[in-house]
Design a protein that fits this description.
6-stranded antiparallel beta sheet, 4 domains, Beta-Lactamase, about 700 residues, elongated, Hypothetical protein af1432, alpha+beta, 5-stranded mixed beta sheet
């Protein structure tokens, strides 16, 4: 073949390899799909299955080592790669590959059992050889063995290989490949692996696995053990003469390894339901390419496939939110469209702003593109269409900057449109062959972008609702905190005043037992207020009303809180009255109402606290309490919103909360509060439910009838 023609053929094949999807054993894909349906599926279980198939393994490594995930260190092992992708993205990749395998006959009708058995045997042999010679990177050896013939899968998927995939894998095949395609399958596999820029000799081990033994004696151990593993797994036992010397082994060592590996391969085949006895043997002749498929049928398959892929992507999006959703949209696009890299531009106030997805995209947030700008990305949004651009001096500076930042030949702009709104633009970076492959897939790209936009909008609405709920909870928490502070101030004021009384009594050598008891009670009450103000009262609690009334009045009378110009009196019945609540809320209600009454008498006056006895209202028995003052009354504008938090003339953050707190406390214990106010004074009437035993007393039953 003429040199220029061979170079063109070589480049054509490389371009096809860039967009090739390697066929995967359907039995393994089936197992992977079943595992993906399990919520508890982990990376370890996925890795065990993926490690059995070269096609899916090379896809995982290719995505994990791409720009969308690259963080400066390349991933050699499957576990490393899968940990970077994560369980959800690995599931997305598996499901996507399954759909591609179903609708695109990637194996071109060729049975893959023989290839699979050879690849798996080579991988296991390479691992055993690595252990035998103490090679430190066991997993790398296994992976190199698994992928040593990946070039054959890749060439098969390009359609250029024809039925020669079934030919004997030997030097003659390599010669036919070079003459017909400009490269061997070993070179094709090495070229694919080299694109990952691994810190490894894996690419060389793939490239040289057909080299004569004599040329490899001084080669890197990985190259030698992969070549030996290939020979041990091949169909030509006579090729093994002297092969053990590559790794310093004799025939007995090799036979021991072969016996163990044969059993492992058959066990794996049995697990996946692969019948190796039906695997087609290598062909002696090199057959012509298979007949091209019907174009109409192919287009229909593409449409159904793309619809399925978008539907699968939607399910993946539904499991994500926030930044994770943005990452999933960008990285799933890499899986579906073979993008080299992606970036997201979100629309804020008619300006596209970059959103970093990976660590090497941090400065993308500095990009800001008005939608009115004259550039291809803005025009893509304005026209609501998918747009391809390539490196060209005529492009706007913005478009050129995006091309340079993604280090690709082409960009595709995918507007994230939902109805008439644009949420942003997904930008994919790709090579010329990849752009050519996607050129006629505008409907697929647009469907994906529409689904991504719908998921983003839904997530945004959900986030907005969550933020509103959080704000509402925070507001309620702040309100409760203010009320707690307000209520705590009451016992603290009493404590402060009683400390003054205590100081005076100590100075006069008078007994202070009662004062210490009161201080102890009020300190305990502070703790209970802080701990249980917002809790519902226990139904089993009961309190004797008259005792609490007298205690509260005594607190005001004895302490220095009550001015000398204000007189406070308490009126109760002779018999004890029990209500259905604990003493603390009743005490808080009374303290607040009496405190307000004191503040309503700046020039002095009288406060009356009265237990008016039982009252039946709406068929229920209540104890009626009245707190009255002889002040000037409450203004009408205040009366209109009396029990709501209001801004009062008092100082402090918690001003205007008192009556709101009283109302809440009364309501919590099942009571009713009302107010009657005029120029001659104000009376608050509080109805508190009587204890159950008292409510059923014959006297109250008679009163009710």
């Amino acid at each position: 073949m003429h040199l220029a023609k061979m170079q063109r053929s070589d480049q054509t094949i490389r371009n096809k390899l860039l967009v090739a999807r390697l066929p995967v054993m359907p039995q393994i894909l089936s197992k992977l799909l079943n595992l993906c349906q399990k919520e508890e599926a982990g990376i370890g279980e996925l890795a065990k299955l993926i490690a059995h198939d070269a096609g899916i393994a090379i896809k995982v490594l290719n995505i994990a080592n791409g720009a969308a995930y690259n963080r400066g260190n390349r991933k050699i092992g499957l576990m490393q790669a899968l940990n970077v992708l994560g369980v959800e993205m690995t599931k997305t990749l598996v499901i996507s590959e399954s759909i591609f395998q179903t609708f695109n006959n990637l194996s071109h009708g060729i049975e893959l059992e023989g290839f699979w058995a050879h690849a798996l045997k080579t991988a296991v042999i390479a691992r055993e050889l690595a252990r035998k010679i103490s090679y430190p990177h066991i997993e790398e050896a296994y992976l190199a063995g698994l992928l040593h013939d990946a070039g054959r899968l890749a060439l098969l998927s390009t359609g250029a290989y024809g039925s020669n995939f079934m030919a004997m894998d030997d030097e003659h095949l390599c010669s036919v490949e070079t003459s017909s395609m400009g490269m061997t399958h070993a070179e094709a596999g090495a070229w694919l692996i080299e694109r990952w820029n691994l810190d490894s000799f894996m690419a060389d081990s793939v490239r040289y696995h057909h080299e004569p033994i004599g040329r490899l004696k001084s080669a890197h151990p990985l190259i030698r053990l992969v070549c030996l593993a290939h020979l041990l797994s091949s169909y030509k036992p006579d090729a093994l003469n002297g092969a053990g010397e590559l790794c310093g082994m004799n025939d007995d060592d090799l036979q021991t390894i072969l016996n163990a590996v044969e059993a492992q391969t058959r066990t794996a085949a049995s697990y996946f339901g692969i019948n190796l006895s039906e695997a087609a043997p290598p062909a002696a002749e090199y057959l012509p390419p298979a007949k091209a498929e019907d174009k109409k049928q192919a287009r229909l398959a593409d449409e159904v496939r793309n619809t399925s892929l978008v539907s699968a992507a939607a399910q993946s999006f539904s499991r994500c939110s926030g930044r994770e959703l943005l990452e999933t949209i960008a990285r799933t696009a890499c899986v579906l469209f073979n993008f080299d890299d992606t970036l997201l531009l979100l629309n804020h106030a008619k300006t596209l702003t970059g959103v970093p997805i990976t660590e090497n995209q941090q400065r993308i947030s500095e990009i800001s593109i008005p939608l009115t700008d004259e550039c291809a990305v803005a025009e893509s949004v304005q026209k609501r269409q998918v747009t391809f651009i390539r490196r060209d001096d005529s492009l706007s500076i913005v478009d050129q900057q995006l091309l340079r930042s993604m280090k690709t030949e082409y960009l595709v702009y995918m507007p994230l449109m939902i109805e008439q709104s644009c949420l942003g633009v997904l930008v994919g970076g790709l090579s010329a062959p990849q752009a050519s492959e996607l050129w006629d897939s505008e409907r697929f790209l647009k469907s994906y972008a529409t689904q991504a936009a719908a998921s983003l909008k839904s997530a945004t609405q959900l986030r907005s609702e969550i933020e509103k709920s959080i704000a509402k909870i925070n507001q309620a928490h702040q309100e409760t905190s203010r009320k707690v502070i307000h209520e705590v101030n009451n016992p603290l004021s009493i404590i402060k005043n009683y400390l003054g009384v205590l100081d005076d009594k100590i100075a006069r050598n008078e007994p202070i037992v009662e004062e210490l008891s009161i201080l102890n009670e009020e300190i305990d009450r502070v703790g209970r207020i802080v701990g249980s103000l917002a809790e519902q009262p226990q139904e089993s609690d009961t309190t004797e009303v008259n005792g609490v009334l007298k205690d509260v009045v005594r607190l005001f009378s004895v302490s220095r809180y009550l001015p000398s110009t204000v007189n406070i009196v308490v009126k109760t019945g002779d018999k004890p009255d029990e209500i259905a609540c604990s003493a603390d809320p009743l005490k808080q209600i009374l303290l607040n109402l009496i405190k307000n009454a004191v503040e309503a008498l700046p020039n002095g006056g009288t406060i009356e606290v009265r237990n008016s006895g039982r009252k039946i209202q709406d068929g229920k028995a209540y104890c009626e309490l009245r707190i009255s003052d002889s002040g000037a009354g409450i203004p009408e504008e205040v009366l209109a919103n009396l029990f709501s938090p209001v801004r009062s003339s008092k100082r402090g953050e918690n001003r205007g909360l008192g009556l709101s707190i009283i109302h809440d406390l009364v309501k919590k214990i099942g009571g009713i509060i009302s107010c009657d106010s005029g120029p001659s004074g104000t009376t608050f009437t509080v109805l508190l439910p009587v204890a159950a035993a008292k409510a059923e007393h014959p006297k109250y039953a008679a009163a009710q009838s």
